[in-house]
Sequence to fold (58 residues):
Amino acid sequence: MTTCPTCDTEIEESRPTPEEGYGEESYAPAQTEYEGELYRFCCSEHKEEFEASPERYV
Fold:
């Protein structure tokens, strides 16, 4: 599990299998790399927000 850097929502790092289900956590549908580090986001809008100003969130 990881946290979306723009809103601090807890998200799964990978898609859960059908047996695991989604539970209370959401799947990280968006991700980007910045300075060699992979960041995961709860939605594509937060990814775009991060990419526009990554130093604000790092």
